Amino acid sequence: MTHSHGDDDFKKGSISLGGAVGMGTGVMLGAGIFALTGQIAQLAGPYFALSFVLGAIVTSFSAYSYIKMSNAWPSSGGIAMILQKAYVPGAIAAAAALLMALSMVISESLVVRTFATYVLRPFDIAGGPLVPILAVGVILFAFLVNISGNRTVGLLSIVMAVIKIGGIALFGIVALWSGGFSLPETSSSAGGFSATGFVASVALSILAFKGFTTITNSGSEITNPHRNVGRTIMISIAICVVIYLLVAFAVGSNLTIEQIVAAKDYSLAEAASPALGQLGFYFTVVLAAVATASGVMASVFAVSRMLAMLTDMKMIPHSHFGMSGSIQSHTLVYTVVLASTLAVFFDLGRIASLGAFFYLVMDMLVHWGVFRSVRKEIGASAVILLCALSFDAIVLVAFTMMKLASDPLIVLFAAIGIATVFVFERIYLSRWTAPQAEGGH
């Protein structure tokens, strides 16, 4: 299939099922496994592998809303389209869509910080100005790849996803084999793993899977979208569960919980050392670099697409600040600037928390909107929608309680951020929802 340049790059049917799964797992595996394993272990203690399982279950319930909506109306609008159908155009739909876009930008900064942390490990550099500098470098690389068009992104996604999935699986199998299959030990002194902490850890596990939403954003470009969007999402989640569990057990059988928590920003590299020696350590660092870089690439593509859609749908104001080119290329620039800013000012733990708050709030708005307005139209089960909503709510409450105890400031940042988005959209669009008669389709 030949592509003309410019905005026609987003052609119907230009992404195969394999390519879509590559993109979905690409985004998921980038953040989840390298950035979050240690953070999850810190909250869930010896049960951190189970946290991934619960995260996958909650995510599968969540995915139901998106799959049902995408099957009914496969469009490149993805989440923005879902929200417009559920809430009719207005500030609620726009604010929720903007929260989604922002949570994706937040996870980009999480991933690039992780990239920097791993790449600097061999040089024993754990902090300092190099982390943010490198992080911003990766974002710029992703920007350049994305400017070169759809085919490049699709091809690179598949190649990198294969390297990544193969490499991480290899790491997991070898580390498990050398470490013996066992759950991580905790020394008697390390108590304090509470049920709340465990439930809160699921908030971060969900972040490790939320990449599936990028698939809904590529809706109409996937071949045979009515069937393949849903299939892509479920295949991607399944692949990720297997790999996360493999890694969780591999890390757990080589390190104690204290060691995992101590090395939480680079726990995979740490776990590779006892299992595979210095070579394994370097292998993991390179793997982390490839995984996170490709994750950012796919994610930058998805976010700029989404912001361009929101601009086209008149859900967010647009200023091109004197730049030439398409709206998509402008939103690419915004995405890059915003992700870079976050990567410079926040550490990994805080970026992950911020992402969890934004994402869970947006996700709940999606389920509620689908439940309230369109469930009969798309034949969705009320029970599954309400389960998805309740699971999100339980996890969000537990996570908020944990963070209020350990880092109340990040809860404040998140609350201010979310409130700002809603107030901004309310002022910009001057109403919460449009009158049904005008905006009803």
Automatic annotation (TrEMBL):
Membrane topology annotation: Multi-pass membrane protein
Molecular function GO terms recorded: transmembrane transporter activity
The keyword Membrane is assigned to this record: yes
Pfam families: AA_permease_2
Key word Membrane present: yes
Subcellular location: Cell membrane
Domain of life (superkingdom): Bacteria
Keywords attached to this entry: Cell membrane, Membrane, Transmembrane, Transmembrane helix
UniProt protein name: Amino acid permease
